[in-house]
Amino acid sequence: MSVPQVLAAIRAAEADAGRPAGSAQLVAVTKGQPLEAIERCVLACGAFPLAEGRAQELRDKAAAWPEQEWHFIGPLQRNKVKYMRPVTLVHGLEAAWQAEAIAQAAQGWGRAPDVLLQVQNGEAQKHGTEPAALPGMLREVQATGLTVRGLMVMAPDLDGHPDRDERLLSLFRDTARRAQDLGLSELSMGMSGDYPLAVSAGATLVRVGRSLFS
Ligand SMILES: *Cc1c(COP(=O)(O)O)cnc(C)c1O
C-alpha cells in the first residue's frame, strides 16, 4: 500500500457511507520511520499531519521539520509533557492531570495543543476513560482551558475472529454516538488494519502508519 492507495480507500469508504469526500482526514503515523522515508512515501504525495507515539522521537523529528503539523498519539507521561510544544493535537488524553500539565506548560509556549479524549475499548487494553466517566472527564479537561475537539479510540486486535468486522464496526459506532452525545465533532479512529470500517462509522481522523510505507 501507499499514500495514494490509502487515500483512495478512504474516499471509497466515505462514498459508501454517503459522506462528503474529504470528511475523513489521513493522519500519517511516522513512528519508527526515518525522515527520508517520510519525505519519499508521505510528503511527496501531499501535506498531511504527521503523528508520533514516542515523545523523544517527536522532539527530534519536529526539530528537523519545524513547519510541519505534528500530532501526538502515544501514552503521555508527566516528564514528557515538555516535548508537546510543537504538537497541535494530542489524540490519547486519558487523565485530567495530563490536561493540567499540558495547560500549565503551554503558558510558556504561547499556544496550547487541542486534545481528544481516549475512550476505553472494553477489551484487554485499559488505556483511556471508561465511557460512563467521559462527561466528568470532559468537564475536568475543559476546566484547564484546553480545547477538547473529540474522542479517540483504539480497536482491540480481533484478527482471526469470525465476527471481527461486526465487532469493530460496533465499537466505532458506539464511539461516534458518544462523541455526538457529548457535543464533540472530531473522531480519531482507524489504523492500517481497520480504517475503512472506521470511516464508514464516521471517523474524521484516521491514524494510518504501516500501510503508507509498505
Ligand atoms: C502505531 C499507531 C497507529 C498506526 O498503526 P498502523 O497499524 O501502523 O497503521 C495508530 N494509532 C496509534 C495510537 C498507534 O500507536
From TrEMBL:
Modified residues (N6-(pyridoxal phosphate)lysine): K31
Source organism, top-level taxon: Bacteria
Start and end residues of each Alanine racemase N-terminal domain: 21-213
Keywords: Pyridoxal phosphate
Acetylation listed as a keyword: no
Cofactor(s) listed in the protein's UniProt record: pyridoxal 5'-phosphate
Keyword set includes Transmembrane: no
One Gene Ontology term of the molecular function aspect: pyridoxal phosphate binding
Pfam name, any one: Ala_racemase_N
Similarity section: Belongs to the pyridoxal phosphate-binding protein YggS/PROSC family.
Protein name, UniProt field: YggS family pyridoxal phosphate enzyme
UniProt source species: Deinococcus arboris
